[in-house]
UniProtKB/TrEMBL annotation:
Parts forming coiled coils: none
Protein name (database record): ATPase dynein-related AAA domain-containing protein
GO molecular function annotation: ATP binding; ATP hydrolysis activity; dynein intermediate chain binding; dynein light intermediate chain binding
Pfam family, one: AAA_5
Protein's cellular compartments: Plastid, Chloroplast
Residue ranges constituting the ATPase dynein-related AAA domain according to the UniProt record: 4-66
One GO CC term on file: dynein complex
Signal peptide segment: none
BP GO annotations: microtubule-based movement
């Protein structure tokens, strides 16, 4: 039985034509995944697929034409917004206090302590912003991404 609400499948990384072409029938209106053995699996109406990619360099027109796109430029989220989000993650995420398990309290206290210790460095024009700006000026094997640099 199908659960209420939406279900999401998130594919993070390059859209490689070798494997994504097999998903084209899934992305069509018929929403069928055809396996190599010929078996077909239907995607429930409540399920959505998201491709989170850096660029469309490896995507084919057949795949692109089957997808809606949302593009976030480098300036969509400011560096202070990204740093604020990083601080929220260090503090233990965005879970309501009703979800907190009593046995997890020592861990939450540690997360709060760590967040308090690094918070001064995440303020505008402080160490982290300067480090990210400096890193952006260096040569990279992959295209520079502030979110990825911050996560590292």
């Amino acid at each position: 039985e199908e659960q209420a609400g939406r279900q999401w499948v998130v594919l993070d990384g390059d859209v490689d034509p070798e494997w994504v072409e097999n998903l084209n029938s899934l992305l069509d209106d018929n929403r069928l995944l055809t396996l190599p053995n010929g078996e077909r699996i239907s995607l429930p109406p409540s399920c959505r697929i998201i491709f989170e990619v850096e660029d469309l360099q490896h995507a084919t027109l057949a795949t692109i034409s089957r997808c809606g796109m949302v593009w976030f430029g480098d300036n969509t989220l400011s560096l202070p917004q990204l740093l604020d989000r990083a601080l929220v993650c260090v503090r233990g995420g965005l879970q309501p206090s009703a979800w907190v398990n009593v046995s997890a309290l020592p861990e939450l206290e540690l997360e709060s302590f760590c967040a308090s210790a690094i918070e001064p460095f995440l303020k505008p024009d402080e160490l982290m912003e300067q480090a990210i700006q400096h890193a952006a000026e260096l040569e990279h094997v992959m295209p520079f991404c502030r979110q990825r640099a911050l996560a590292a």
